[in-house]
Amino acid sequence: MSPTVIKFGILGCAEIARKVSRAITLAPNATIYAVASRSLDKATKFAAENSFPPETKLYGSYDALLEDPAVDAVYVPLPTSLHIHWAVVAARKGKHILLEKPVALNVAEFDVIVKACVENGVQLMDGTMWMHHPRTAKMREFVSDKGRFGDVKAMHTTFTFAGTANFLTNDIRVKPDLDGLGALGDAGWYCIRSILWGADYELPEIVTALPGPVFNEAGVIFSCGASLRWKDGKIATFHCSFLSHLTMDITAIGTKGTLHVHDFIIPFQEKEASFSLASESWFNDLVTGWVPKPSEHLVRTELPQEALMVKEFSSLVDAIKTKGSKPEMKWPTISRKTQLVLDSVKLSIEQGFVAIEVHE
Q1: Domains of the chain, each with CATH number or no CATH
Q2: Which among 7, 57, 95, 101 is annotated as catalytic?
Q3: DSSP letter at 285?
């Protein structure tokens, strides 16, 4: 049997919506059904520029799209400040929600979104694409292997890119009324998610922001970092920035092994991605090299990670629609933990880099 095809509506014409709309087209169980903007002209232009199917419904308001009974799910790439309103409205209209990250301005707002989704029986998933790459599952096999990796002791992650002058002045991610979390929300989200992934989603006990964050004139974070500590003694650090060269690194260190990946958010190539690992390495006899040397592992995929994200999300929606399944709560739970740590970093910065206890 061919899969049920989930009909997507896209709320807004953000740059990231170009990538995700292509992903919807590539996913075998999804299709672009409608797009909405604040003006019909903008929706029409966006659909034409991105080669949407000619039968795509075009709407000049988000409300109009959400009123369309044929729309199964919505992708929401709107500024973070608008998430709480439009995600709640979408949930109340019975639309399943693929929500861009960061999911909200704070965990209290996200809890309102989750509550609306639970009450209306709709699936919620955030748009953290790398989680769905088959490489991520392969890396999970290694860090879960007690014999080769052991117990995680430390995680260090980085996501930086050098924004252009236009980006640093005009992008929504530098505007306090649109995406007020700045680099912490945009880039730090990925760092925090990868740390939680490495810790098997166990929340840290303490989060402490690192001194020296950089802000723009409006008070939006351009660069920052933090350290995290768990009750069992494991630690993590991350650095995120709009001011440094493109870097996307994870280092996960266990008692018996080490994992390195240098393109964890967006692979260097769309259809293949690699990672390296070392297990029980030591020095050779003259201490001039390693034995055994780290090994490189290549993972290929026919569908890019964003299409795999759409495919998984659509499968969950299909199960709810056709089999009466309940929404999968794994994804909102992971989103909430990521937001909770992000909130703690922000609070630590605001309070002068003090240690913040993390409570669910």
Answers
A1: 6-130+305-329 (3.40.50.720), 131-303+339-357 (3.30.360.10)
A2: 101
A3: T
